[in-house]
Amino acid sequence: MTEGGSGPGGERVRVDRSEGYGERLLGLLLDRAHEMPPQLIAPLVAEEVARMGGRDVTILLQDYEQMFLVPLPGPGLVVGAPEPVEDSPAGEAFLRRALVEVAEGDSVRMYLPLLDGSDQIGVMVVTLDVVDDDDRRLLRRLSALVADMIVTKDAYTDLFFQARRRAPMSVAAEIQWSLLPPLSMTTPMVEVAGILEPAYAVAGDSFDYALNDTTLHVAMIDAMGHGLDAATMATVAIGAYRHTRRADTELSEVYAFMDRAIAEQFGLDHFVTAQMMTLDVVTGRLRWVNAGHPAPLLIRNRVVAGRLDSPTTLPVGFGGRRPEITERALRRGDRVLCFTDGLFEEHRAGGETFGEEQLIEWTNRVLSRRTEVRAVVRGLSHVLKERRGGVTSDDATMFMIEWRGDTPDVLPAITDLPDLS
Fold this sequence. Notes:
This is PP2C family protein-serine/threonine phosphatase. By secondary structure, the protein is α+β, with helices and mostly antiparallel strands.
């Protein structure tokens, strides 16, 4: 027992700070992981799970196409076949960001989402003979710690990248994936999610975002051409965007800086279509500029309510006039779907393009079956690719924003500590 803060009457309150079982188990894992090389993370996790009576640990990571959850190899882990994201207990835990339990004879197989902050990287699977609420709470916290460890170690190893890659990847795609922020982010104020196709050959499409205080910044770009030329242009465009964003530059000036960067580096015969947005996550005020990009769709009450049309200027690199900033007040729960033209300009057999009408129709169908933003984006991208005949001759990228409008500056409640009053 150690003295803590003051009670309501000003008296000193003594707080129990002795180490409990759960703290000791998680603390040991954290203490040992600091300087542990990436290849020993798997056996370390398996060892810690065994301390609480668990066994048969599997760590599943999302593959780059977002079709499967693939096993991470390593000593102490059970390595089986990849699990489909659709129609599997692991996929259900992944898509719902929730614990899933499956009875297997006299034991229980537990599927826990690996959440780094709010980004989903995969699922941890553990078998226990008996499960109670203490086990569930401890395993939820353990899986969160494992996710943080994987993300941290991933910055200086290829092990996790190699596990996630299920097909050869082009150099251009390697560049694009290295540019991307986390594919999803969830906060009480706003949620975002994105996806790129073809995952192993994407070149010119990219997106970027940052939540700075109460402003969400978003950019989506589509560099002309294919291969390394397109990937190089996309790299310069995103780099220029981040440079100006971090300097708190006005949206119209962001365009001008990106425009000069592309023109000076590649000449006037190269261009990048772009769309830059800011969203005030407190008021719901959306502001954007459009540089030759398809207009986003506004989704309200789980259906497409219309296009967010706006004046456009020339693509980045062509020296267009200063773009006009368009504003729109969102309602709580509104979603904005941004996409590149590869999503609806694909030519199907017979020569017809897929078209925006079909894009809207299938968006509404997916929205009727899915609720979570990331699940909607993933499901829509895959069904659109299927409807195009599985063909993706051009990059097809999608990014969705949901404005939730909750208070941004209230810390989450802690409900399992003793009352100190």
